[in-house]
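step 4 of 6: structure.
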Amino acid sequence: MSLASNERAHKRVLGLPPALTGGPFLPQHFVPSVLHIPADWLLTHGYRAVLLDLDNTLLPRDCDAIPPDILAWAHGLTAAGLRCCLLSNNWHARVSAAAEELGFALVSKAVKPLPFAFLLALHRLQARRREAVMIGDQLYTDMLGAAVLGIGTIMVQPLSDYDLAHTLFLRKLERFTMGSRVPEPLC
Ligand SMILES: [Mg+2]
């Protein structure tokens, strides 16, 4: 579903203008998982830098190891020449360990959706906003923060139902804002 058609769907579902229901900040794409985001798709769409959330995007919240298929996908980004940075609100040891395993730059304690960490990540990757895309599993942190800055947005379904209490609350708001939108392949 395109962004425009998604906004029209919101008008139908909620009876409110998209501006009041998060329409302008809805993800440009919504896919089942990062495994549905090929490196060559990113390159052909002009992206040179990839900002990635960690928890429940690359690493299940209830797990300490990145699944092998996701690790291989992440290494494929780097092999394709994409510059990658983890952008996590988390600050525990598992974040730095994951960044090292992935071979990605890291900005932790990001306080998404505030813009500072997004800008720091772009600086570290020497990338412009229009060259960057944010991949994450949360609308009101990952997607909102990137969209405000004009960074591309790809939302994924969370890897696990387990999450922090405040995140589970935000997911209820996400379902309201996302309406009937379901994950779809990139086109
Ligand atoms: Mg997350």
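step 5 of 6: annotate
 - Strands lie at 29-31, 49-52, 83-87, 105-107, 132-136, 152-156.
 - The radius of gyration is 16 Å.
step 6 of 6: archive
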